[in-house]
Amino acid sequence: MLLDHFNTFADFQPVGLLLDFPMVRPEPEVQAPQRAKTGGFLPQTLVETDRGFVQARDVKPGDMVYTFDGGCQEVETVRHAVPRMTTMMHVPAGALGNDCDLELPADQMVALELDAVERLFGLPLVLVKLISLAGYQGIKALSPERLGRIHIECAEEELIWAESGMLMQAGEGGPDGAFKELSLAETRQILASDEGRALALTGLEEKEAEFPDLLKDLLEAPKATPKAA
After folding, report:
1. Which end of the chain has fewer CB within 10 Å, C or N?
2. Tell me: the pLDDT tens digits for 46-101?
3. Is 142 in contact with 90 (CB distance < 8 Å)?
4. What's the order of all strands across the beta sheet hosting 140-141?
5. What whole-number distance in Å separates Cα of residue 17 and Cα of residue 91?
6. How far is 212 from 159, CA to CA, in rounded Å?
7. What percent of the chain has pLDDT over 70?
8. Running DSSP on this structure, what letter comes out for residue 67?
């Protein structure tokens, strides 16, 4: 019967061919973990540790840092990111608990404590990007600069006390993070709501909160004159 079918064994390979070309499965490539593109601390940012306030560049694994709700936590890893162009924000003294004027990255995640936050979410604070606070308490945009970042990480996501009273995010956050993060639109709505409530309490006519145009501020900002060599 098989002699009448010339292609009976067409789907089979000769044994000799398999021995000459053994089947080798390529090993899966191990991809390196992607570095965080936002957040982190500037090297000169003061971080509160058990040794007092020290610059972020001097924080090392094993150091103890003070956090919002976790007490004193041990630093597990410290990563230095490659410098990149970053829009800067001017934060006046006292705007977010800081005791002096600061220049911080626009994507810096900071804690925001407002009555509106507690009314809407039942939380003492939320996390927002600094860029979304433009116009609040005198915070405004500055020209971009090329800066490096230092990522300080503990066993879990934490809010670290910095600059004598600010709370900055340390670790990976996101939708499943330990702290609620607001989008740009949500932050602007809460700021407008809080300002409207403050106006109502003073007896003034409630009006929509006015925030400056970030692009306009950057274009109108005086350009820094180059220093003479």
Report:
1. C
2. 999 999 999 999 999 999 999 998 789 999 999 998 888 989 999 999 999 999 99
3. yes
4. 102-105, 88-91, 140-141
5. 72
6. 29
7. 68
8. B
Q: pTM for this one? A: 0.68
What is the residue whose two structure tokens read 């991809």? 31
The Cα 15–Cα 94 span in angstroms is 80
Could you tell me how many helices (H) and strands (E) the chain has, helices first? 4, 13
* Cβ(67)–Cβ(130) below 8 Å: no
Ramachandran area for residue 66 (φ above 0: left; ψ -120 to 50: alpha; else beta): beta
Q: Quick one: average pLDDT of 192-217? A: 53
User: String of b and e for 131-157 (b: at least 16 CB within 10 Å)?
Assistant: bbbbbbeebbbeeeeebebbbbbbeeb
User: What is the dihedral sign for C-alpha 161, 144, 94, 207?
Assistant: negative
CA 218/CA 28 separation, integer angstroms = 47
